[in-house]
Design goal:
215 residues; alpha/beta; 14% strand; globular; hydrolase activity; hydrolase; HAD-IA family hydrolase
């Protein structure tokens, strides 16, 4: 756990970092949009995978306004959000944790740990309570608040050196905006090649799984 030495605050992304849920979340989007033409769905899934960490609120707006090129309809938008929420709660209840995540969380009692996710905050809190995982965190935060704002709020209310652990470009950008260090978890990322290149160019630390952080 040498990488974590010197940090007082550890901020985790959720999907692909704590939960092995990236693929299943893509499936949840696909199910939610099943009544649309497959070409539109595939375009959206490409957008979704290239923009991990951005909330569903922004992604569904993008689908309606940019991919369908329709006038934004509030009713359709709300139905999408409701259906996707139902699919996600089922997903989060069943999905496996990532390799080493539970062991790592159990070892971090002397640090302040938080979740800063693009997933819906109320869903995350509900699911983490059901899975008895909320006890490991000082706060669980998600959308609709943007991730960079979540991190900013955490830093404003907690004193100490902070590290963001994530698996997407958006996670990295949110850490950069808030002037804190970033650690890339590679194994479950849908942006693997993109972030590996970024990490190599900027000497950013990375691990394959969280198990490498457990002493």
């Amino acid at each position: 756990m040498d990488i974590l030495n010197g940090y007082d605050i550890i901020i985790f992304d959720c999907d692909g970092v704590l939960l092995d849920s990236n693929k299943q979340k893509s499936d949840a989007f696909k199910i939610t949009l099943k009544d649309y033409d497959n070409n539109y769905i595939e375009d959206f899934l490409d957008y979704h995978k290239n923009n991990g960490g951005i909330s569903r609120y922004e992604k569904f707006k993008y689908f309606l306004s940019n991919i369908l090129e329709n006038k934004f309809e509030e009713t359709t938008y709300k139905v999408m959000l409701k259906n996707f929420s139902k699919n996600c709660i089922e997903l989060y209840t069943k999905v496996d944790m990532t390799e080493g995540s539970l062991k790592l969380l159990s070892s971090l009692s002397e640090k302040k740990c938080f979740i800063a996710s693009g997933s819906d905050q109320e869903e995350l809190i509900e699911v983490f309570k059901k899975r008895d995982l909320d006890k490991y965190f000082n706060g669980i935060f998600g959308s609709p608040t943007p991730k960079n704002e979540i991190i900013g709020n955490i830093l404003e209310n907690n004193i100490g050196k902070a590290l963001m652990i994530g698996d997407s470009i958006q996670d990295y950008k949110a850490a950069f905006i808030n002037n804190i260090d970033f650690l890339f978890v590679k194994k479950y990322s849908e942006q693997n090649e993109m972030l590996i290149k970024e990490c190599e160019e900027k000497s950013i630390a990375s691990v394959n799984t969280l198990l490498e952080l457990v002493g």
